[in-house]
């Protein structure tokens, strides 16, 4: 009886592994990770990549037209270089603008492209020159909550009389 239980456990383990492999294959095919055949690659350089990662969406007018295939750092300029795998049916003008936007307050990031008006299209291997990096939302919120004022020495040098009742009245 112990031998039969071992075989049952082994068979159940094989079934679980097969299901896990199936889910992995499905998620990779639906998620769009990697470069699909027929797509062309372009690049864009950003001063701040934020949470942009491979697999992030590339959209035009809110419609997904590609994915981010790679994000690297250019060692000479210290700019983030994003390689974009684009749908071959979408031709972007050479003066298009790429902007890193967030998916939500705590979500990931994606690239939104605003097409330009040029009559020439970006060729495979081309680069989007007009870019806008990610905005640090928490940094902006922090700067509003705690504005960075001058030094404490400046505050000590300020006049002590700030009570409006002690100030001379203004005449109109």
Structure in a nutshell:
By secondary structure, this protein is of the alpha/beta class. 26% of the residues lie in helices and 28% in strands. The chain has an 8-stranded mixed β-sheet, with no helix packed on it.
Describe the protein's architecture and organization.
There is one protein chain. With 172 residues, this protein is of the alpha/beta class. The chain has 2 domains: 1-31; 36-145, no CATH class. It is 26% helix and 28% strand. Strands 7-1-4-3-2-6-5-8 form an 8-stranded mixed sheet, with no helix packed on it. The mean pLDDT is 80.
Provide the β-strand percentage band: 25-35%
Supply the number of helical segments.
3
What strand line-up does the widest sheet have?
A: 7-1-4-3-2-6-5-8
Radius of gyration: 27 Å
> Given the helix and strand composition, which structural class is it?
alpha/beta
Helix content: 25-40%
> Shape from CA axes?
extended
Q: Uncertain segments of ≥5 residues (pLDDT<50)?
A: none
Features:
eight-stranded mixed beta sheet, 2 domains, alpha/beta, 172 residues
List the helices and strands and how they pair.
Blueprint: H1 2-31, E1 40-46, E2 57-60, E3 63-74, E4 79-86, E5 97-102, E6 109-114, E7 127-128, E8 130-132, H2 137-145, H3 152-157
Parallel strand pairs: 1-7, 2-6, 5-8
Antiparallel strand pairs: 1-4, 2-3, 3-4, 5-6
């Amino acid at each position: 009886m112990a031998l039969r239980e071992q075989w049952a456990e082994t068979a159940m383990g094989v079934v679980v592994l097969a299901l896990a492999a199936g889910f992995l294959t499905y998620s990779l095919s639906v998620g769009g990770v990697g470069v699909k055949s027929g797509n062309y690659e372009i690049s864009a350089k950003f001063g701040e990549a934020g949470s942009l990662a491979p697999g992030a969406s590339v959209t035009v007018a809110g419609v997904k037209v590609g994915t981010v295939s790679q994000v690297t750092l250019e060692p000479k300029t210290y700019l983030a270089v994003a390689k974009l795998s684009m749908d071959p049916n979408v031709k972007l003008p050479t003066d298009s603008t790429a902007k890193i936007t967030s998916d939500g307050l705590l979500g990931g990031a994606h690239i939104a492209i605003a097409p330009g008006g040029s009559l020439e299209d970006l060729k495979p291997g081309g680069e989007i020159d007009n870019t806008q990096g990610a905005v640090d939302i928490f940094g902006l919120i922090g700067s509003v909550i705690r504005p960075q004022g001058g030094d404490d020495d400046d505050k000590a040098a300020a006049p002590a009389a700030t009570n409006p009742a002690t100030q001379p009245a203004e005449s109109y």
